[in-house]
Here is the input.
Amino acid sequence: MLLFMYIDPGTGSMLFTILIGVLSAGYYFLRNSFMKMKFKISGGNIKEQDSDRIPYAIFTDSKRYLTIFKPICDEMEKRGEKLVYLTAEKDDPLLNEKYEHVRTEFLGEGNRAYARMNMLKADIVLSTTPGLDVYQWKRSRDVKWYAHVLHAAGDVTMYRMFGIDYYDAMLLSGDFQIKQVRDLEALRGLPEKEAKLVGIPHMDALRKRLLETGDSSSKEHETTILLAPSWGPSSILNKYGKKMIDELIATGYKIIIRPHPQTFVSEKEMIEPLMKAYPESDKLKWDRNIDNFDTLNQSDILISDFSGVILDYALVFDRPVIFAETSFDNGIYDSWWLKEREWIFETLDKIGIRLTSENMKNIKELINTGLTDTRLKEERDKARAESWAYMGKSVENIADYLIEKRKELAAGEQ
Here is the structure.
């Protein structure tokens, strides 16, 4: 009997999307009918009130994007602009911030958050969440403009397919990203969205903290290796697992392993046995902190794969990286459509040292090379210039953009 009641996750997601569509249509139908009735009763002298319309809204599905959105909230507060920060996590630290002009609100988790966003009434929504108008998160009829800001300095095509298609604007950090946006639009017959260089708030925030805190790796300490992979079937821990950790332990260096946060959600069957097999010691640490700044700052070299943290580390902290060859499968990502190698992998070949299953036994030698090769620093400088426009000014640029765009939208309605 229970078997007939089971609904698989994919079907459940589809049914929820249909339900939200029906409820949204019903909501707008009833509201429009009510407004027409009021209009007739008043003899045509009543106008729909916009008192509940939000001028600017930020939507985030995760508190890990705090380094992106807190500086923007702070800047809008400083300028006296009314903004509402909407989060899908009830323990988001920004919910505890005390602002005068900025309001923070917990939407509810998962589908509840998307249901609320689907009926939002706002002039502009800023988000780093992909998939607008693709799955559960639908464009609200009462939102005039959706802008996407990147959470990393790499390819915009590394989102799952159609992740950015239905935004009105992309706020970017490198010219190569603009080209990727335009190429996808041409392939799919989409109208051109705005693509504007503003910089990258996340990296600006890291850089500011580094300047204020100081470079921990310059102080006397034990050589420390950070293993910080992405998640999914192509990640280091999925491809190499115990072999990778065994080789790192054999170097005698201090090891910090920082799995991607999504690993603990989607890959429990892989990560939990690994953590049990390699308990913490004075030579090995597992890092699950939301804030990765201290971990990045106290390490000397990073080993990763296609994770965005590799650019944070190389470009902000200006330290060497080793990247694992994991036969990345782009079949589910937008980059598949472009039939060209991703910028991140072209760049890794220049700024990093490639790690393979064959040379893994020489990992200590690779680490030592990375720590001493000056050529790698020169390539990091070039990559920084390509991917990090307006260093230190992204937050101001984004605030300027939001304010000017709202004025433009208002002028177009007159």
